[in-house]
Amino acid sequence: MGKFYSIIIVLLLFSSCIEPYNAEVDVPDRGLTVEAVITTLPGPQEVKLTRNAPYGLSFVGINRPEILAKVALRDDLGRTFVFTESQDPNRPGVYFSDPDFSAEVGRTYNLELELFSGKRYISRPETVAEVPKVDSLTYKAVRTATTNKYIGEVGVQVTAHFQDPEGIENYYHWRPLKSTFVFITEPDAEGTNNAPISCCARCFHTDIPQPANVITYDDKDVDGLYQRKVVAYVVDDGVRFKETYRLDFLHLSVSQRAHSFLRLTNQQLSLTGSVFDPPPANIRGNMISLDDPEEQVLGYFLAADAQFMRVYIHKDRLEFVKTPFSKIYLDCRQYLRAMDGLGRNPIIPPLLPVDPPDDWNP
Amino acid sequence: MKHFYPFIFLLYCFSFFSCEEEAEGGFTLLTEEIVNVNGTRAIILGRILAFQNVAIQEHGFQFALTADFSDAIDVKLGERSRPGNFVGETELLLLGREYFVRGFAQTESGLIYGNVLSFFTLEPTVEKFFPATQFAGEIITVFGRGFESTSEVFFGDAKGQVIDVAFGSQIRVRVPPRLASVSVPVKVVTGAKVAFAERPFKYPTGTYELLDIRIDQIRFRNNIYFKQGSRFFVGLGIDFRSNFIPEIYSFTPGDNEWKPTGYPGEPKRKAIYSHTGFFGGGYKGFGTSAPYSEDFWKYENGEYQSIASPNFRFADGLGSEVSGKFLAMGGLLEVGSLVREFNPLLGNWNNLPNLPYDVTGDMLNFTYQNKLYIIDKEKILWEHDPSTASAVAKTVYPSPFIKTVSDFGGLAIVKGDKAYIGMYNSVREFWELDLKTFEWAAKNPFPGEIKAENTAIFEHEGQLYFLRSLQFADYTEFWRFDPDAF
């Protein structure tokens, strides 16, 4: 009997009242996001303002445009350049400078915002440093190992060749632009039910080069040396390199602060989930709320000297491409509409052009 | 060696010391960065560095004209417990002076200051104002820098009503009534400083006079007009009852009537014509299948001379004389961008490159320094060099167009380096365009009857003359416009 009581006592010792814990997680406000790249290239320059949305596994919201804001750029000479909101209904929340405005090398700029709600923001100053000009661009096909040991990733690396000036701290950034490529389809291919449409197997398509790496570089260890630096990488998805891919990008000189921001952003984008990843970080941009310095504004106001770069990547000059390439049994003009699937998009996508852009000069 | 151990130990201890000043209370105060200086405004960023929360009763910045911070302006941001950034802003600075700034924090144990930074405030400057000509009571924008929110704008001695000051660099101001001169200096008074604009502001000018020389019983529509020497010519087209007008009338300044000239050709409407005496083409009838009038003419030495017809049909298009050659352009019968050139010395027609867009007879055009200027339906003024087929968009007509209401029927003429453009259908606006700078200046609006159609415009000895066919009276008015009078 004594044994029984002692077991009961021991059991009672291990028991406790369990109170459920209801964690109250703050739902963050839809903070302001600033995307502004002001360069020395001809204008108009562009500032995009949005409200960020919660990020989750499922669709939880969209980045709403911040409309009716007052946007101005100030320089260290006291000049102010006012931006006006786009009248294009497809581009709300985008603000443009005068077409004849471009940043000047040596000048320091602040971006100043006043939202419709009355909240005011200003960027920390960004000084435009001269960018050393690129002498030439080369490209080559590369193969990268992936988690699938049988299938590697194929892509094209673009290398810039330029002289880094001695005795000057330089911070480089290469920003991909919308690029054009020859889009080949196989509407006449055997085994399809489509009638042959030989007219329309070759169109021109545009995309932002993928993957969206943020490539940035500093000359801390290589000051004054001639540089051969990989500045862009375009993954071969089996469609992009069937003939010619015209890659456009900007060669930029950025400030040290911008370089740090971009480097950290790239680090976060490159997380793979392995134990060797850097810890997730909260990257601060350079916009400051004048009403609440604790408020975090996402994005960065970047002012930079820029050189526009363009390279035509020819399939026949690549050592290898992705094989087999992706066959698309379509009239190439209809590609975007076919991708729209059920046609839920209220805006009917345009037909792809069969004629090249006016400045197509491979 | 043992004798050195105490010294090594001391050295080791000293290595943990540093000269960084840490405030009592366990934090460091930094005056981190001058974010922006503009006019009387400065924005400064400070930072409190600490490993834990701090007890600060008050913090902020001090601005002063001297490094010893006597008579400092305090920007107070209140109490604070968390370390991190803080931002201070003041608009109380004087223009064109050097300032010193430092952060401060008040704790229980005393007042702590951060490092000192210095900066210069800028002198106010007026860069430009737009528009350069405006009516009293309307608004112009003065662009510059260093404008306080209490800035005042003067037009000569008259003070304008400031609507708002944006970003310290743009002042919207209502133009005061004109006192005496039409051209007055613009100055901005901001704080104790005054900034002048480089160029003067101009009130609109231009006087209209209805002449007592009207053309009775005739109202022109779809007509032609030109000037030779000091003689004005107007004619052909149809009247308001759709009767063809078979005659061309002329007027010599100083006369008191318009006289027929004995035109020998076909009556026609919507002919193409230069303002110098070439004309031809057009329709001989009405409707969609109206017959084409093939004859082309040049008025020279007091007589009409028939010239060759082009291979293409031109009706409701544009005509112009550039470098002594007659250009026929566009219209509704052939390709709307087609251009053919008549060489009066050789008497033949040549092909020229097409225009980059279609043109019709209701678009305004004029020539200046052997270049052709056309205002299209989108209000864009294009400059064409017909020989090279280059087309450059130079400016945009400043008044609004209402499609099919006020985008046709206007007048355009060149006087010296200025073009006078406007009075489109149902509107009174008339503009002066500087052909050197492509800046627009408003002229006084047309004061006469608005229900009329422009028929012709001429220039003579600095004055503009124009004809308007009234809709509800059976005659054509004859007006004189002095662009510079007020």
Automatic annotation (TrEMBL), chain A:
InterPro entries membership: DUF4249
Protein name: DUF4249 domain-containing protein
Annotated organism of origin: Aquiflexum gelatinilyticum
From TrEMBL, chain B:
All copies of domain IPT/TIG, residue ranges: 124-195
Database matches in CDD domains: IPT
TM helices/strands, residue ranges: none
Pfam family, one: TIG
InterPro entries referenced in this protein's UniProt entry, alphabetically: Ig-like_fold, Ig_E-set, IPT_dom, Kelch-typ_b-propeller
Signal peptide: none
Protein name: IPT/TIG domain-containing protein
Organism whose genome encodes this protein: Aquiflexum gelatinilyticum
